Amino acid sequence: MVSKPNNSSPKKSVNTTRLNKFIANSGICSRREADMFIAMGMVKINGKIVVEMGYQVQPGDDVRYDGRRIISDKPAYVLLNKPKGFLASVKKGTYKKDVLELVENATSYRIDPVNAMDRTTTGLLLFTNDTELKIKLRKPSRSLSKIFQVVLDKNLVQADLEKIRAGVVIDKFDKIEVDSISFIKGETKRKVGVELSTERHRAIFHVFEKLGYKVEQVDRVVYAHLTKKELPRGKWRHLNEREINLFKMMK
Fold first, then answer.
1. What is residue 186's DSSP assignment?
2. Which domain holds residue 39?
3. Single pTM value for the model
4. What's the average model confidence in pLDDT over 5-33?
5. Residue ending a domain, choose from 53, 69, 85
6. How buried is 181 (Cβ within 10 angstroms: 0-12 exposed, 13-18 middle, 19+ buried)?
């Protein structure tokens, strides 16, 4: 039986959630994909098929997608200053010294890292269960600034810095371009600042290794409008409402 939009959907209140948002918050899919599944009649509420996009889910409703019950979490947003030695993967699996161990007490909801980060890289790492935001932030975008401090095994010569600014060809099918690179005032030329928009978390290593340098340390110090200010290594904090809204307004 298919519910009728004009008389079956509860009125919106502070305790109800729009159906497509409810499904997206569960982590199954994005809100746009949820609209498609609803239209296809793949969603049931309390045993009845619902095809109304704007249906308001009430507390206690039994919501099922393709026969499986959906538990929708409240969106959670956690920022970690990741230490060395922990792996952040966007793929499901069990890993030794998983970065999730560091945020297990941040929320009762299941959260995942927005980006991958290898064991040697440190710095800012965002976690959330907001599927739409994860999809948005995993797409390359120049509006999403990511700044890294990189320590090399030897001084970076000016000629190589200019090569990096122009883009480094890794092989005939691969060229890596950085948004900007510069020496850091007051530091030796072994330490540089690099801004990237690519989601390839090993790109920095590939660029410098191609030019004959060994990367000794990579630390992400800026992620969009977030910084490491008052966030010691290995510690986490929840994003505030302003920080969350800035991400949601991002194109």
1. T
2. 5-69
3. 0.75
4. 73
5. 69
6. buried
